[in-house]
Design a protein that fits this description.
D-Maltodextrin-Binding Protein, domain 2; 11 helices; five-stranded mixed beta sheet; about 325 residues; 3 domains; alpha/beta; WH-like_DNA-bd_sf
Length: about 325
């Protein structure tokens, strides 16, 4: 027997409110409309739904059982309405964001956390990949946004790129490294220590070669390579090795006081970090809200980084 779900919902409202008029008001319907629905339901099941002559209305055992199903339908309907409303407002949904490992681990993961403090109903899936990998993921619909570094001549047709942070590299080392006590660092100081090689395929590898050219060194001693951000930080903090890192990544780890920047100017990359997305593709409200959050966070971060660099690095 097929029953009208709306009739079950109205039955539940009438029983819970104690009367037809009250139940109709609860649902935003007219009293005659609800009375007709209850009469149709009784006719459909062939049994009375209310005990005769009782006020407030009291259900029969069958009426009470059907009302329980009506409450479940009503609750599901309200939850569905909340889901739709939350999705449209960007307060519910799923965001899929990926990007280059160092930036994802150092900054984006923290921004995800602060974003979810404000929007706890949004689920975020984070992934890793270089620029070309992320472009394929965006094109294939496996990602909504990507956080990648790009140079002006590397713009990818069919994609929009929003700059969030200019490229800025530094030479990183452990806090308390002997070179932090040198008043005027020279190129010879850098070549006297071992180095950490960037991840294969990372733009930092090209930047390291630029440093070699700028300081006139044919080669550097590489003692460690292929590590994640956490492993590179740990290695640096426990050794006298040096590494080329984005200054923003080192800045993000400043509270841990494990690694620091050397006051040595190195060639700067002609690229910036930014949000990559498919051109013309509509982001979900949740993804659009997250993108706005990231842009605002980086806007504030740029000013903090500049003050820190002037005061701490060059102001030593």
């Amino acid at each position: 027997m097929k029953l009208n779900e709306r009739h079950l919902m109205q039955l539940a409202a009438v029983i819970d409110a104690g009367g037809v008029s009250e139940g109709a008001a609860l649902l935003g319907l007219s009293q005659p409309a609800v009375s007709r629905a209850l009469s149709m339901l009784e006719a459909r099941v062939g049994e009375p739904l209310f005990l005769r002559g009782r006020r407030p209305l009291q259900p029969t055992p069958l009426g009470a059982e059907l009302a329980a199903h009506g409450r479940a339908i009503l609750a599901a309907s309200r939850l569905a309405s909340l889901s739709v409303s939350g999705y449209v407002r960007g307060a519910r949904g799923t965001v899929r964001v990926g990007g280059v490992p160092f930036f994802m681990d150092a900054m984006i993961s923290r921004m995800i956390a602060t974003f979810q403090q404000r929007e706890p109903e949004i689920v975020v899936h984070q992934s890793y990949g270089n620029t070309q990998d992320m472009a394929k993921a965006l094109e294939g619909g496996q990602a909504d946004l990507a956080v990648v570094p790009l140079a002006p001549n590397e713009r990818i047709p069919g994609f929009d790129f929003t700059e969030i942070l200019p490229g800025r590299n530094i030479v990183a080392c452990r806090t308390g490294h002997p070179l932090t006590r040198e008043r005027r660092l020279q190129a010879a100081h850098l070549t006297a220590y071992p180095w950490v090689a960037p991840l294969p395929g990372s733009p930092l590898l090209t930047d390291l070669h630029s440093i070699l050219v700028s300081i006139g060194a044919p080669d550097l001693t590489i003692r460690y390579s292929g590590g994640s951000l956490m492993s590179v930080m740990t290695y640096l903090s426990e050794s006298d090795a040096l590494a080329i890192l984005p200054f923003s990544v080192v800045f993000a780890q400043r509270k841990e006081n494990r690694i620091t920047s050397l006051a040595f100017e190195v060639p700067q990359p002609n690229r910036s970090l930014g949000l990559l997305r498919r051109a013309g593709a509509d982001l979900s409200p949740a993804a659009d809200s997250f993108a706005t959050h990231v842009v605002k966070e980086f806007d504030a971060l740029k000013h903090m980084i500049k003050r820190h660099e002037n005061a701490v690095i060059w102001g030593r």
